[in-house]
């Protein structure tokens, strides 16, 4: 995908995330599927809830095993963040909201308890068209908290960015 604006005004040239299961990996897999460069920060040791983050994800390790460190770096390094949850943000997702607000970074929250795949993809396209987002941070719930989120996020991003 070219970093040029498409007909809808979408300019995403890179997708980043922290590599956690669920929303993060859905974002990375969408980038790979779309041929969009990807990356982001992950905790020292490439730690995630399922063990070590696979090497196919081109992530940089922070100096800390604490996940809040990578969350903050990814929000700061991105031009905007899309946050996928089922229900209100909790834990690391709530921290993502806090960091984005504190840093004045654009944030789109998509609650998949209230929003279907097609509607979420349309929301993403519309939001991106109104922002200057070249580097998109994808964040949200872990797979253990929201089974099936990985696949949902990948599908939404592929539809929203295609």
| Total number of beta strands | 9
Strand order of the largest sheet: 2-1-9-7-8
H/I helix tally? 5
What's the order of the H and E elements? Answer: EHEEEEEHEHEHEH
Which consecutive residue ranges, at least 5 long each, have pLDDT under 50? 1-8
Characterize the main sheet: 5 strands, parallel
- Taking the alpha carbons of the first and last residues, their distance comes to 9 Å
The first-level CATH class name: Alpha Beta
What is the fold-level CATH name, i.e. the topology?
Rossmann fold
The best one-word shape is globular
Number of separate structural domains: 1
The value of Rg in angstroms is 14 Å
- Named at the architecture level, the CATH assignment is 3-Layer(aba) Sandwich
Tell me the β content: 15-25%
Helix content: 25-40%
Q: What would you call the structural class? A: alpha/beta
Instruction: Give the overall average pLDDT.
Output: 94
Question: How would you sum up this structure, described in words?
Answer:
With 162 residues, this protein is an alpha/beta fold. The strands form 3 sheets. A 5-stranded parallel beta sheet has the order 2-1-9-7-8, with helices on both faces. A two-stranded parallel ribbon has the order 3-6. Strands 4-5 form a two-stranded antiparallel ribbon. The model is unreliable at 1-8 (pLDDT under 50). The protein contains 5 helices and 9 strands. Helix 1 runs parallel beside helix 5 and helix 4 packs across helix 5 (149-161).
